[in-house]
Amino acid sequence: MRQHDDLYSYEPAKGHGLPHDPLNSMVGPRPIGWISSRGRDGSVNLAPYSFFNLFNYRPPIVGFCSTSAKDSLRNAQETGVFVWNLATRDLAEQMNATSAPVPYGTNEFEAAGLTQRLAVHIDVPRVAESPVHFECRVTDIHRLRRHDGTDVDSWLVMGEAVAIHIARHLIVDGVFDTFGAGIILRGGGPSAYAAITPETRFDMNRPGAPR
Ligand SMILES: Cc1cc2nc3c(=O)[nH]c(=O)nc-3n(C[C@H](O)[C@H](O)[C@H](O)COP(=O)(O)O)c2cc1C
């Protein structure tokens, strides 16, 4: 198998030296944390976060990272809850619209023409057009820091999914249809995305895992 000897190397603290930062093109495509939340004043918020992932099975824990103090972080701090909504290909434009920099208190559901459906266990609206919702209670808000211990203006918000809702048609023979759900992922650069389709699937079993 080919090995790579001609390497472009850089130390991120000194800059990457390329026209576009390769960082999030390489760690990618990334799932999109489409996060709805509510502030202490009752205002509703919706925004996408691709520094997002699932970190644990039981209990299910998801997290997103706010790379400055943004409204979703503020709301998570204020009310301790948020909803993760699955972003799909048919909702891509609306998802993108909800990333617009707007003043605190602006309801991005309304700005993007999306329908609010109140969650069952927490007082946060879900995106009714999205086929999957995780109702989350905040477990940790962790400020990121450099290796020398100095603070960074980024916060990782972790939440336990206390309730999960799945559009029933996406449960096929008892299995969630990842490749039929139209899931979209964020690539790098200013505009790249990937859509998960059945052709992109391949299967592999873990060594020693039961078949
Ligand atoms: C696909 C996508 C992914 C994004 N990922 C992040 C992210 O991981 N962290 C972040 O701070 N901003 C991210 N942004 C930008 C935020 O969505 C944007 O700053 C938004 O206005 C934040 O909204 P809020 O202040 O209402 O929470 C992303 C934008 C898009 C379109």
TrEMBL record:
SMART domains: Flavin_Reduct. Residues 26-178 form the Flavin reductase like domain. It comes from the Bacteria. InterPro entries: Flavin_Rdtase-like_dom, Split_barrel_FMN-bd. One of its GO terms (molecular function) is oxidoreductase activity, acting on the CH-NH group of donors, NAD or NADP as acceptor. Residues 1-22 are annotated as: Disordered. PANTHER family: BLR2425 PROTEIN, FLAVIN REDUCTASE LIKE DOMAIN-CONTAINING PROTEIN. This is Flavin reductase (DIM6/NTAB) family NADH-FMN oxidoreductase RutF.
